[in-house]
Amino acid sequence: MDPVKTYRYLRLAIIGMVLLVGAAVVHEWWRTGWQCLETSVSSYYYTPARPVLVGALVAMGVCLVVIRGSTDAEDILLNVCGAMTPVIAFVPTPGTGEHCDTASMAQVDVPADVANSVFALLVLGLAVLIVAFLVAHGQRRRGDGGGGRTRARLAIATCAYLVTAGTFAGARSAFIDTAHLAASAVLFLAIISLVTVNAVLYGREHASGSLRIRDVVNRYAVLAATMAAVAIVMLIFGRVYGWQHAELCIEGELVTLFAVFWAIQTRELWWRGVRTARASDEQSPTGSGAG
Q1: Do the beta carbons of residue 199 and residue 269 sit within 8 Å?
Q2: 277, 73 in Cβ contact below 8 A?
Q3: What is the CA 193 to chain-centroid distance, rounded?
Q4: Which of 99, 177, 275, 283 is the most buried (most CB within 10 A)?
Q5: pLDDT at residue 242 tops 50
Q6: φ/ψ of residue 273, rounded to 5
C-alpha cells in the first residue's frame, strides 16, 4: 500500500498547489480592489503573490516529474509538464503588470533574478541527466536497458537541455523575452495531450472488446475538449475584440480544469496508484522513465 499512498499524495499535492496559487491571486485581487485585475496569472509575479506563485510552480513541477505514468506516453507528458513549470516560475512574463498597483514589486531586478534561478535550474538539470545516463548504462549492463525508446528519450532530453542552456548563455535577452511564453505554450499543449492520453487509457481499460470511438468519449475526453475549445474561443475573442483579459481567462480555465483532471484521476486510482495497463509496461524493459 505504500507505493499507492505515494501516488495518492503526489496527486493531492498537485491539486493543493493549484489551490495555493488561486488563493494568492484572489487575495491580491481583493487587496488592490476588484476593479484591478492583472491580464494574466503570470503577471502576478510582479505583485506580493510572487513567492507563492514561484514556490507552488516549482513544487508542482517536482511532483509531475516524480509521479510515474501508467504508460510511457503518459510518463513523458508528465515529465514535459514538470520540466516546463520551473521555467515559467523563474522567467516572468514580459512587462511589469502596470495595469494594477504593483508598486511594491516594481523594483524587481528581472535579469539578475533570471540569471540566478535559471543557472541553478540548469545545474539541477545537468545532474539529472548525468544520473539518468548512469542508470541507463547500469540497466544495459544487466540486460534491461530499455532499448531504443530509452536512448531516444535521453537524446531528446539532452538536446532540449543543450538548446535551453545555449540560449540562456548566448542570447540572454532573447531568453528572458521568450522563455516564459514558449514554456507556457509547451505546458498547455502537454496538459491537453496528457488528459487526452488518459481518455484513451480509461477507454481501453473499460472497453468490453476492441477499443472503439465511443469508449474514449468519457470524462477525460470531455475535459480535454473543453480545455482546447475554451482556449481557442478566448484566443480568437481576445484578438478580434482586443479583450486584455483573454490570456488570464485561458490560463485560469486550463489550470482549473487541470486540477479537476487530477481530482478525477485521484478518485479513480485511489486504491491502485496506476492503471492496470501499467503491468504490460513493467513486463518490458522499455517501461523505464524519469518519473
Answers
A1: no
A2: no
A3: 11
A4: 275
A5: yes
A6: 90, -60
Q: Name the amino acid, one letter, at 208.
A: S
Q: Is residue 194 within 8 Å of 186, Cβ to Cβ?
A: no
For 40, phi then psi, to 5°, come to -160, 160
pLDDT of 211 higher than 90: no
- How far is C-alpha 163 from the chain's CA centre? 19
Placement of cell 478525477 in the chain: 264
Write down the pLDDT at residue 96: 57
Q: Which residue in this structure is represented by grid cell 501499467?
A: 278
- DSSP, res 144: -
Give pLDDT tens digits for 3-46: 888 899 999 999 999 999 999 999 988 888 777 888 888 888 88
Please identify which residue in the block is written with the cell numbers 481499460.
Answer: 205
Residue with cell 541507463: 136
